[in-house]
Structure formats: structure tokens, C-alpha cells
Design brief:
Layout lengths: L3 E6 L11 H12 L3 E6 L25 H11 L2 E5 L1 H5 L11 E5 L1 H10 L2 E5 L1
Parallel strand pairs: 1-2, 1-5, 2-3, 3-4
Length: 125
């Protein structure tokens, strides 16, 4: 049985805010169940790792919690968030632009190695 869950947010677009709740919530639940959880934000979802972006979004209009609040809750539960390296160039970001909850920057080889050599399951959103 796998001990680690990797959630890849590739098709989750911050412009469609209602898409953002499920992957972050699932990550938090898995961490609460004591699984090691990595969330890799790539493609358009990489914007969530930029300071101010997730803080300006809510999943549901009128909600008191921002997407950034959900990210902070997940990180407190043990979830590690990563930004895919091409996102830095794509969205004109530097390492200094990333939220504190971003545990680091990873490239495509990282994900492939984790999947092929690790004991993990992968969910893609």
C-alpha cells in the first residue's frame, strides 16, 4: 500500500475558482490520514504559488475563507506544495515571489522519478 500521495494540479485554473477547493481539500484529508502528501502546481495552477494570487480568490462567492486560507490549512496538516520550474518563467516569477507554504521548485524529472521509483499514488486535477 502506498504511503505517499502526489496531487498534480495541472488543469486546475485559478480563473475557475470553484475548481480549486477539491484538490486542496483532498490533500488536507490525506495528510490528516497520516499520508505524506505533495501538491505539485504546474501549468496555470502554478499561479497559486505566487504571493497574493490565492489570497485574492474564494472558492464560493461570499465565503470568508480564501484559497490561500485553504492552502495554509493544508500546509499545517503536513501537505507540501511545490511550484513547477517552468512556471517561474511563464508567469514572470522569481523564488522570492512564492508564498511561504511553497516548499520548493521542482522540474518534470522530479515527478517522473517519484512516480516510477517511489511508493506513491497520483491524483491529477
Amino acid at each position: 500500500m502506498a504511503k505517499k500521495l502526489i496531487i498534480v494540479m495541472a488543469n486546475t485554473d485559478p480563473r475557475n475558482r470553484e475548481e480549486l477547493g477539491a484538490p486542496i481539500f483532498q490533500a488536507t484529508v490525506a495528510a490528516a490520514m497520516e499520508y505524506e502528501v505533495d501538491v505539485i502546481c504546474t501549468a496555470t495552477s502554478g499561479r497559486l504559488m505566487k504571493k497574493g494570487v490565492a489570497a485574492s480568490l474564494v472558492v464560493k462567492e461570499g465565503s470568508p475563507k480564501t484559497v490561500y486560507d485553504f492552502i495554509k490549512d493544508a500546509a499545517e496538516a503536513g501537505v507540501k506544495f511545490y511550484c513547477c520550474s517552468p512556471n517561474l518563467d511563464l508567469f514572470d516569477m522569481s523564488k522570492d515571489d512564492l508564498i511561504p507554504e511553497c516548499a520548493g521548485i521542482v522540474g518534470g524529472a522530479h515527478l517522473i522519478e517519484e512516480v516510477m521509483e517511489g511508493d506513491c499514488k497520483v491524483l491529477t486535477y
